[in-house]
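Team,

Forwarding the record for the chain on the shared tracking sheet. I've put the sequence and predicted structure together so nobody has to dig through attachments.
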Amino acid sequence: MPLQRLGLVLFVCISAALVGWSSQRSFARQGDGWEYLAMTEAWMRHGSPDVRAGDIEAMFAGIDRARGVAPGEPSAAALYAAQLPHGFVTAADGSTHALHFWMYSLAAVPAKIALRLCGGHEFNALVVTNAWLFAAAVGLALGAGLGSLGQRAAFVLLAAVTPVLWYLTFTGVEVFSWALAVTSLVAIERGWYWQSALAAALAATQNPPMVLLVLPSVLLPARRREWKPAGAALAAASLALLPVAWNWWHVGTPTLIAATLDAGLISAGRTWSLLADLNTGLLPYTPVLLVAAPWSAWRLARRNDLAALLLAAAVAGMLLGVQTQINWNTDARGLRRYLIWVLPALAWLVVRAWQGRARARWVAAAVITSGAVLVLDPPSDMNWLEHRPLARWVMREWPALYNPDFEIFTERSAHGEAPPEWLLKGVRRDGWMLGLPVAHGHTSGEVTKLLVHTDSAAELPRRFRIDPDYLPELRRRAEAATTPAYIQPPPGAVWAAAGSINGRYRPYSGPPVAPLAPRRMSGPKAR
């Protein structure tokens, strides 16, 4: 059998195994999964994405069938129904719509049909869709990309041996968007401009900043005065406006998540968080790609590579666009989920900038480092409410070196978050502050890092055992903190209950009070 045909057979077998494995998983829901599951059920039952009572009942019934609920056990509705309301809105005509758009759910309908026909768990339609989209994108890149097989394989390895693999079983749009980003980039390589723009626009219906990926597909032919392909690409890109038109028509507003966005949050601090945060940034998960991509962009700029310059501008724009999210510590699998669909563009820049052994060295280094992280440090289900191992270690040994975003530190130290309804209904956008003061330190209870604020300074002696000689200084610094502030206390000066501040997840039960006994408080609650 020719080597190329053997590779194709192997790829098909591995892809089929991946899809088959995904179809048999037990029920789990992450991120905005309830919205997408409900809309998939709606598309399946009545061919429209507005969610009706029967859709919710059918969704829960499917979960119960898979669980094999015994008499006396709580049903899925009893367990999960309270998690649904904040993800949906009611229009003036009485119809119910999810806050997020329905394109991903529509894409999951074929998987749901296949699962029904073969007797699988239909709630795995999203996961199966992730699996086959991932496999299809990898197959497209290997089979249709330009350049040698080595060059195409390099792109696939750089883009795929990353935390996107953790997201294959995540009930959200991350793999959907990643696969479409790969598709758009392959199409650009081939000069398929309107197809590239269409893939980017489809991704943008779920993640609006991805509309910037249409820049090369529109501007490259326009620069050569090829108006027909440029116009076709622009027309395809207009699909990104579908969510705006849909929401305006049905609910009377261009977006249903305006309450969760604030352009004023774009900042150097958040940019640094995306790149280097030890819990959620690129640095601890794809360190080689983080270094290689900007270096590659610089090399390509020196060559006046317009396609690369446009893609680099799109990446910069996407990194700025995601910073408008008010909720900065979201459900994720290690790497922040808004970075997953940026990875293919970074990989594309590296592959384009380097050739031969230099490219092979970059790829080998990236696969070894990111692969080691994937295998040795997989995230737990509640990892977004705990500090990752590298962050824990740095904050124990050199606490002054890592000062994360206040929300990230608070929610991961308290292992809980404020109710989502507070943000959506405009009650309070900084609910995490009710958890202050919070601390991180050794398993013994010795505090190495505190986050304090003047409004909660009085809580310090109630939550921690503090050296009497250090208490006046700590209280003074906390009372002076009109905005949250980090404090690194001297060794042995501040103590919490043993095992309560080591950063590992445990269900939120409120902070300890002297003499280090549990106490419940209002504020962040675990999902």
